[in-house]
Amino acid sequence: VTVTHRGLAAFAAAAADRYDAGPGDRVLQFASPSFDASVLELCVSLLGGATLVTGEEGPLVGERLAQALAERRVSHTLIPPAALATVDPRAAGALPHLRTLIVGAEACPAHLVERWAPGRRMINSYGPTEATVVATWTGPLTPGTGAPPIGRPAGATRVHVLDAALRPVPPGVTGDLYVAGPGLARGYLNRPGPTASRFVADPFGAPGERMYRTGDLAPWDASGELRFAGRADD
């Protein structure tokens, strides 16, 4: 995926504001450098004046993950729900330094919000690499409200939920999720066919603008947030 400097700069500015890490904070490098989540960790930490906590060899799960969070006084981290679910539930209340917990890369179940949201900011983030790391995010999640939404557009990102004729669907109706805006990638390197099929003309943008067909399904809920509803090809 060929992302642009413009898209990366837009994401970095929006992420610094949303995740709010600064001097004195410590951001765990959980993701492999080959995964786009590592870009989030770099932007949130170094561009905000925080410390990027490195050197933890994977896989970081279970007791090893809890130990790393505690011993290295991590204040901000992005952890996929599958990895978070391996941590002893008692650890959630025993990490006083952990103030911002970002979940992403897959659907987050309600029980993890119940366990991990109290006492800290827990933010659900969604986005394909084709939209430069994150396309939508939530505010702080609240326990007792069921499975979390994937939120609202991040920064200057534009999100459309459309039917098969590329018409917007009403709130509550599931449609195909498209992403547009400054974070949109140029396409797939040296793969013009897949690029043309997934990066299509944006009928709601300026002439020449494109949008990315994510292949995900979602409705807008009554509060104006997106709810992940699976894949179109399932």
Automatic annotation (TrEMBL):
GO terms for molecular function: phosphopantetheine binding. Keywords: Phosphopantetheine, Phosphoprotein. Coiled coil: none annotated. Pfam families: AMP-binding. Residues 1-189 form the AMP-dependent synthetase/ligase domain. GO terms for biological process: amino acid activation for nonribosomal peptide biosynthetic process; secondary metabolite biosynthetic process. GO terms for cellular component: cytoplasm. This is Non-ribosomal peptide synthetase.
